[in-house]
Amino acid sequence: MEQLIALILGTLVLLALIARVGAGTLVSFVPPDVVPGISLDPRNLPYYAGRSTLRMFIALFYSTLFTLIYGYIAAKSRRAERVLIPLLDILQEEFEAELQKRINSSPQET
Predict the structure, then answer these.
(1) Rounded distance, CA 12 to CA 105, Å?
(2) How many CA atoms lie within 13 A of 108 on its CB side?
(3) What integer pLDDT is reported at residue 50 of this predicted model?
(4) Largest Cα–Cα distance in the chain?
(5) Which helix (H) or strand (E) holds 74?
(6) How far is 29 from 83, CA to CA, in rounded Å?
(7) Letter string b/e over residues 36-53, b meaning 16 or more CB atoms within 10 A of that residue's CB
(8) Is the bond preceding residue 32 a cis peptide, omega within 30 degrees?
(9) Reported pTM
(10) How far is Cα 70 from Cα 81, in angstroms, rounded to an integer?
(11) How many other CB atoms sit within 10 Å of the CB of residue 81?
(12) pLDDT score of 21
């Protein structure tokens, strides 16, 4: 029973933390009219780190969801597999070429 209470309490604390960190992400951003302020106070560093971490986990969730759906469709349909697998290879090669182009065009530090 104590473990169940601890689990529920931990879940509620985690949800409250996510809600606190995620509340600032709904700020309107329409440059140059509305630009959200950023405080350079070191006390805000954990808050900003939490927001970055939250964004990383959201991206990880959507990436995993895409992977599972894409893989499921490719595995269940031979016709879809013949299209999806080469398409993924082409897109990955294009991404790598674009990334290499950006790396080569960036100013080199000495």
Answers:
(1) 48
(2) 2
(3) 86
(4) 61
(5) helix 45-76
(6) 38
(7) eeeeeeeeeeeeeebbee
(8) yes
(9) 0.62
(10) 10
(11) 13
(12) 77
Q: One-letter amino acid identity for 2?
A: E
Measured CA to CA, the distance from residue 68 to residue 24 in angstroms comes to: 30
| Residue 30 bridge partners (DSSP) | 34
**Residue 90: both structure tokens together:** 């082409």
Gap between the Cα atoms of 42 and 30, Å rounded? 27
Residues in the chain, total: 110
Structure tokens at 76: 């269940």
Mean pLDDT by 10 residues, the chain (110 residues): 91 88 71 74 88 90 95 93 91 87 75
51's tokens: 């927001």
Structure-block tokens of residue 44: 């805000």
| Gap between the Cα atoms of 9 and 5, Å rounded | 6
* Residue 51 CA from chain centroid, whole number: 11
DSSP state of 29: -
What are 10's two structure tokens? 């931990």
Residue type present at position 59 = A
